[in-house]
Amino acid sequence: MEINFISIYDNSAKAKYLFVSESVTDVLGYLPEELVGESGYNLTHPDERQALGKIHSANVQTERMSSVTSYRARHKDGHYVLCDVVIHYCYDVLICTNFALVSSDCVKHDMRASTADEVFVVQPDGSIQLAGVWNDSQERMKKVFTEKYPWDVNNNVLTKQEPRFCIFINRFTKESLIVFATQMCESMVGMNQWHCIGQSLYEYIAPQDKQNVFKSIEMSKSTDIINRLRFNWLRHDTQELIPLEAVVSCTYDGLVFVARARNPSISM
């Protein structure tokens, strides 16, 4: 596994850091507290900044569960590090797993690219190579780049976002202990954002789905693919089963698990 870290950005046009995990120091030299509150664009190469703005706008418009962007990030000492960023759009934030790359054509990049909704590679001259989009057309994604700016004058998103929640999971535990959850988990599945910390994810998975979810999470720990899974969530307060779909990606600092409601008519 490449050196990597987790970051959370707000949903504004400036994409400000809300959280950065400790391993950012290994990748980019910064301490997490040096980045929180800063715009993510501050760490991008000037020649690539316009292209990254288009990609950020497209991510907000399409609300992809997972996309990959390859670009150069600025290290604290001034040189640039080629990175893959897996972006999970999650209602009012962007949850990202960030990987330092040896080269743009490495095997691990290809593994992530083959399992993402879409893949953008920003070239040194600032052009964008659309490399993925397995479930969308090249023509439609190119059109997205020309669509209306998705933020108002106050940098707030203009359209209503699909409800989603995210949890971070301790990757060093078989029980998949929860270490963080976004606030939307309470309204969507009845899980308290704070009381769930330290509990096993599997306590919230329907019994018939636990084995499949376990296998997917263990696979995410050992490979660099973005795992997709469908399962039923068990509400503790009502015992109701809620159909969800989720994506999972893994870093040194934990697994990122982003979920949204699933149409119950879709087969498991």
UniProtKB/TrEMBL annotation:
Residues 1-63 form the PAS domain. Gene3D superfamilies: PAS domain (3.30.450.20). Pfam families: PAS_3 (PF08447). PROSITE patterns: PAS. This is PAS domain-containing protein. It comes from Parasitella parasitica.
